[in-house]
Amino acid sequence: MPTVTNARRQGPSGAWLVGLALVLSALFLLAPLVLIFVQAFAAGLDAYVHHVTEPATRHAIGLTVLTALVVVPINVVFGVAAAWLVTRYRFFGRRLLVTLIEIPFSVSPIVAGVIYLFLYGAQGLLGPFLQAHDIQVMFTLWAIFLVSLFVTAPFVARELIPLMQAQGSEDEEAAITLGASGLQTFLLVTLPNVRWALLYGAILCNARVMGEFGAVSVVSGNIRGQTNTLPLQVELLFNDLNTVGAFAAASTLAVLALVTLAAKLVLEARTRS
Amino acid sequence: MSTRLLDAGRARTARPLGLSWSRSPAWRRQRVLPGFGLTLGITLFYLGLIVALPLAAMLLKTASLGWDEFWRLATSPRALATYRITLTTAAMATAFNAVFGLLLAWVLVRHEFPGRRLLDALVDLPFALPTAVAGLALVTLFDRSGWFGSVLAPLGIQVAYAPLGIALAMAFTSVPFVVRTVQPVLEDMQGELEEAATTLGASPWQTFRLVVWPMILPAFTAGCALAFARSLGEFGAIVFIAGNLPFRTEVTSLLVYIRLDEFDYPAAAALATVLLAMAFVLLFLTNLLQSWQLRHADRH
Amino acid sequence: MRFKLVPALVGLALATSPAAAQGADTILNVSYDIARELFAEVNAAFVAKYQAETGRAVTIDQSHAGTSRQARAILEGLPADVVTFNQFTDVQLLHDRGNLVAADWQARLPNNASPFYSLPAFLVRAGNPKDIQDWSDLAREDVAVVFPNPKTSGNARYTYLAAWVYGLEAFDGNEAQVRDFVGRIFQNVPVFDTGGRAATLTFAEREIGDVLVTFEAEVLSIREEFGEAGFEAVVPSVSLLAEFPVAVVDAVVDRRGSRELAEAYLDFLYTPEGQAIAAGRNHRVHDPEVRAEFAHRFPEVRLVTVEEVFGGWEAVSAEHFASDGILDQVFVNQ
Prior knowledge:
The complex is a heterotrimer. Chain B is mainly α. Chain B has 15 helices and no strands.
């Protein structure tokens, strides 16, 4: 039990509050994380290595990383463009545009899967056209990329917009007036000011892409070693009665989550200094 | 003096008349920065392709049902039960996070203790951990043979496969919202007011209630609204722990999924449209709350 | 560096996408939920045998889920070369809704295109504490029953129909009483999972319910998997013949040029080797020698068929499974 020292401004109930917060966090936030690793290593280190390097799981890890490599850069470009647009210019329909950017953030991932099914599925809006040209989107990697793009579209823009709004555009205007090109202005003036927020947005986007379950499970064909991302592989192994394997796969995602948290800590330290 | 008036007058008319802005001085000042066409093009193209087009496909599908059919599907007894369950469990989760999130924010800002930075980082775990993994871990903790479930079961408390489990999964995935909205406001608050209140003889509780609470209320409300919105849309964590019982533990997004599997596309489209409408309403409300919060922050 | 990587990765994505890259050396078998272990073993044996006979190294990809979900995915474009389902209706759907399978699919292979069969049976906890012997026990108020969602799982639709068969016999065909009886069984179900395997997990791992109703093949396999001490198998007095139909998806194999491999794969299921694997995984088979070899595993049971009781699958579909049919009334309006 950690003791409370050196309270900044502490009433008589301070120790109790800190204790309560720590106990609740340990039970509610830490326990699930610990459980994943306990279960993953329940059958020993060898079994763990065996499960993580099993071909289908390895393929799922590869596919998950591939999806992130495709989706994150695209959404970074989009996020930067969208943030530049809505914070640097005033134009008709700006608020509507901001709302449209935020929709994927507040809509259920199942709805994300459903709308893509209704667009690209054989029974969907574009289905007859796609079939006539022998183009398959649903149940392929393309569908996984597309729903992942949808689900994480707002992540970078959401981090950038408040910051760029607060910073204003005086610096950039000065640079342009002094004869810098648009690209130079962006790279040398804007980017250094927003780089940590941009990176933070990219990290959040990456975490969500790798972990997305609902939307991907609607549009993936559940083909072993083909269209199973890691979260789907976790579910599949669990249904295979392979609890240790499921938690081993889950632990790779948990490690990823810990890396994300660590990256965030580093970023925060950077922004503060 | 006269030019200032003129500028003010132009600015006033330029805003509502969207078409005339290109001639206003305000606009010309903005246009100093290049890239309007490029960023507008990228944003509209991308949003159109990735967000608007698929949404339109679904709304088209729903529209083809006709109003009567849509209403019948969207208000079937089983659908109504899912709305009730989703809303009540999301409310339970939000209530829990209102207390737990406020406690965490308070402790993180106002107290120094070993592991504070670590706890601060841990708060973001639910955002970083995939929801399906969270769901799997929670159900393994809380089912009858789990670490917590085996303690709770003899007490007659069932969490897994009960509404409580859904609320738990929702609460886990939305913890950071309340903490992260309240935390900065608490950090920015100057201590003078509180010190003054204490000097004047107010008890800690009175100080909190009369001085701190009114200042953090807008941020707190906005955080709760975000947590509630997130809970309504949660799926990955819930499927593992809910148990799929129609009329008892079935949330709306799960019913959409089941309707899809049953090949009942009209029902899936109708229910998904209801979810989309809920998301819109909540987005609208949270935006309102956030602008209230911003105005409130400006005043202080 | 990243910008060089992206096109390369997109290329890789194209190359690994199932629609684009598989030659005729890879086929996708889309199957029902609890056949995971069965086809893992079948595929390994088939690949070895096929390579020995033709010199070609082939790959069989697998997908498992509730069969109605699988049929829908195929209609939405999942490129299945063969389907190995557990119910006539889901294969027929591929013909009726998408014309993906030829009308005569059931006549193209022996035994109604079903290489093996099973029946709904019960798995109870050790010592059978609730003394569950027959369908009537499932309707008792003190019994919690687990089986999957009959709207998504062919497995659960057999359970529903088998309970109906028992009810018809017990109540002399009085439909109101049968409906009430089946309704009481449904009321005893605490969890409706979407697939057969999820239901098994609910019963065996999560320890929910007093009895799991699923295919005999799953009942026996789960006893082996979890150790025989934990569970007991119970075969009811009467059950329903559950044929597991297989078919080549004509539209897909003709497009991909995989017909020869797909047909060889399905034929393999009828060979003594294929039959022995199926029987070893607790499916009942037709091959007389394999049947005799595994006879000790399968108790005698009185099996009726859908044709005998309901007048065929089309009648069942129209009367029971259609939207707002009897199943909907029993299941949804419980």
